[in-house]
Amino acid sequence: MQNITKNSLTEIVNLIKKKEIKSEELTNAYIDNVKKGKKLNSFITESFDNALTKSKNFDIKPNYELLLPGIPLAVKDLFCTNGVRTTAGSKMLENFVPNYESTITSKLWSEGAFLLGKLNCDEYAMGSSNETSFFGNVVNPVKENIVPGGSSGGSASALAADLTPATIGTDTGGSIRQPASFTGTVGLKPTYGLCSRWGIVAFASSLDQAGPMTKTVSDCALMLEAMSGFDQKDSTSIDRKKENYSKKLTQNIKGLKIGIPKEYRVDGMPNEIEELWEKGKKILKEEGAEIIDISLPHTEYALPTYYIVAPAEASSNLARYDGVKYGFRSSKGSSLIEMYENTRSEGFGDEVKRRILIGTYVLSSGYYDAYYIKAQKVRQLIKSDFDNAFTKVDAILTPSTPSAAFKIGEKKNDPISMYLNDIFTVPANLAGIPAMSVPVGRDKNNLPLGLQLIGKPLGEQTLLNLAFSMECKSNFKQDIIKWWEK
Amino acid sequence: MFIDKDKIKHTAKLARISLDEKKVESLSKDLSNIFNFIEKLNKINTDKISPLTSILDRSLRTREDKVTDGGIRDKILENSPNKNEEFFIVPKVIE
User: Fold this and answer.
1) Relative to the CA of A206, which of A65, A192, A443, B14 has its CA 20 to 30 Å away?
2) How many A×B Cβ pairs under 8 Å?
3) CA nearest A416 in B: which residue?
């Protein structure tokens, strides 16, 4: 079948179910694309033999009742996969082969999918351009010299380039939504606790949440359905009945109240972002939603709060990399302390070191109250802003990012300007609420732009419905030319 | 706040990361900029606000204190960069 990989996940699942294509044929088509897509550098590890074996097994004994029957999937290299190395984009874990499987990937495999490969990401998910990976930067398929965003940059790139029919990422401050916006794809960060964190390499545990990255909103609903659900092994996992997101997906959004927060209109924001936001409002209004101006007064403090809380948790989480139990160990140093210091100096990259030092500093004696406790108090205020807003509205509409994707190298040496990329995405992580990015338009250079929908805790269905409605009416079309295949 | 080189060296010691002089210099510059940005938070009065320690509106689940896993020594040792059959091996700690 010609160009099967151009299809959405939902379409592919239907073709499999109608027996119009076999899993092996599908898998070979993706393997072929991955082989031709080396220039994008979106894969760290390929798992072709596994994928082909699993696809053949599926074809021999197919089960069409599953959500993802015979579907090859590449996943962000932050999810531990049994017997397949898991690097988190770091030299520290270059040769780490877990002997267990993350809960989320287990769930995907039990729904009929299988692993195609592991996708590049910023080192320990710390970055907004996929330039901090030990395995090199990832290229945005939209344009040759442009970043795909980060930290789930390999996931976004592989998805947009048809190297995987759908994928999963993790989002601590925007790492699913920003790359989705930069590549014209759909990305959802679920409510904190909806998807298990067990078996995911930890960055900042009170903010980390995994979610789907897909070509369409229907695909997003399907993937979320497959990956979400209670897990005994994650003490923050929410124990509730599983939702049937794809079956309940509807374009009917009549009567829903949508908040427009004035604080998201930031200085120096390009006109095209403003216009995109207007376009989104117009679509939702025409579809019967009510647009309401709201205020989230502490928005400007979200990013400074994030850059205390996230590094603090990271410095604690990454203390485990000591060169003893697993991962890289330096051969230099004669004492135990020297071995630790050299291992961590050689094993971690610059951005990771920077964040460990920020975190260690804000948690150190004499500074703890002034920084860490202060940030937790402001986090309370940010959460209250959302609690108040959601007494008046059902969801909030904002831009996903303050600009379209930027050039490779453009912001690499300026941490603050890199951090500012996450200005619109960070608040949802701090408040633990769901948010998704959906492609709606383009900037003057024809680069994709997304709008963000932020929802009430466990309001994923409302977000998906709103996004579905915007997707249908926005006329956004992915128009990637496969320049890397030439 | 300006984070001088001594503070960087002290923090790196706490974080068990060795740094050469050039790195100390660049981190002092980076962290000073970042802390200037972070200190925007001092503009808000938070005297009457309690810190948010969990975003879940319930306390963490507890379970019965019962062994559910274990006996996986070999699996745990499998990924160690230096080990023997039973132990992780580290540089000598006691003379």
Assistant:
1) B14
2) 150
3) B34
Burial class (CB in 10 A: 0-12, 13-18, 19+), A396: buried
B48 vs A: CB within 8 A: no
C-alpha span between A203 and A192 (Å, rounded): 14
CA A485 to chain centre: 26
The Cα A270–Cα A124 span in angstroms is 31
Whether B30 and chain A come into contact, CB under 8 Å, resolves to: yes
Terminal Cα distance for chain B, rounded: 43
Distance from CA of A323 to the nearest CA of B (A): 7
Q: Are strands A257-261 and A395-399 parallel, antiparallel or unpaired?
A: parallel
d(CA B54, CA B50): 12
Confidence label for A2 from pLDDT (cuts 50, 70 and 90): low
The confidence score (pLDDT) of residue A486 equals 80
Q: Quick check: B67 contacting A, CB < 8 Å?
A: no
Please indicate whether residue B54 or residue A31 has the higher confidence score (pLDDT): A31
What pLDDT is recorded for position B61?
81
Q: How far is A344 from A33, CA to CA, in rounded Å?
A: 37
Contact B39 A304 (CB under 8 A): yes
- The encoded tokens of residue A81 equal 């996969």
Distances (CA, A) of A393 to A261, A287, A385, A397, A429: 11, 16, 12, 11, 19
Which residues of chain A does B60 touch, with a Cβ-Cβ cutoff of 8 Å?
Answer: 235-236
B84 touches chain A (CB under 8 A): no
Return the axis-axis angle of helices A271-286 and A460-474, rounded to nearest 10°: 100
Average pLDDT of the residues in A372-400: 98
